[in-house]
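Morning, I've got a small favour to ask if you have a moment. Here's the protein in full, and shout if anything looks odd to you:
***
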Amino acid sequence: MAEWDIRKLHILRTLREQGTVTATADALRMTPSAVSQQLTNLAKQVGVPLLEAQGRRVRLTDAARLVLRHAEVVFEQLERADAELAAHVRGEVGEVRVGAFSTAVPALVVPAVRALRVSSPGVSVRVREAEAGEAYELLAAGEVDLALSLAAQAPVVGDGRFTRVELLADPLDVALPRGHELADVEGLRLADLAGEAWIFGGSGPWSDITRGACEAAGFTPRQGHSAAGWTAILAMVEAGMGVALVPRMAAAGRGGVVMRGLGADRPVRHVVAAVRRGSEAGVVVRRVMEALAGVAAGLG
């Protein structure tokens, strides 16, 4: 029977996700030579080649992919063991590290923390603000226990490393300067704003969401200004410099901005909570997930 080493299997799985030995070493805080040595030792232990050269890079062999398919079951079971052991030792007491994108922190995480202080005072939450696309990276690396992200930023369908739960379909409203000719129009549609200057980031998830929503409405948005922070975006809208799509969770009152819903065809962004598969069995993680779901239900 082959000799299995969980640490080396984790390195092999990380190589599959990162694509190169150098990127794997960076992700695991190792040297490239140490990564290569560990993978060479693993191949000797299991008795099959795991890597093959492909130009200046390496690729996983079919045998390596077979090994990882079975290793995923082991990783999931180990997560379950960790979760159950923590529940046995600490009961309802423990800490959950939550990674969340900026607008989810005040809208979802903070109210959930307040609710937990009443319902589960032994549960503590440590928050790390992260871009929506970074949340899964932190989760996979073990740097957070629960990630709040957007469905559009999720890894490929079928990725078995995570358990995901949709929390909220957050409507996108259009922000118009007060006095805009369309600010009071009944039945406003996104297509009515095709000729406007739009304010959104030059790249990243919000750029993709804005472009995607406008293209679904039949036009390509003309970017008048680039900004990523909602304070800056709403300030420019207030000054009459353009219009913007703003998630309802992020909307903040500004006297010179009119927020308009877009009716039946309004775009939404889907907010999801994700954990490493198997860890959802943990009592403390489940408490935090339930608190977030409760807050999301209120917003919905």
Q: What stands out?
A: Residues 62-90 form the longest helix (29 residues). The first strand starts at residue 51 and ends at 54. The chain has a mean pLDDT of 88. The chain has nine helices and eleven strands.
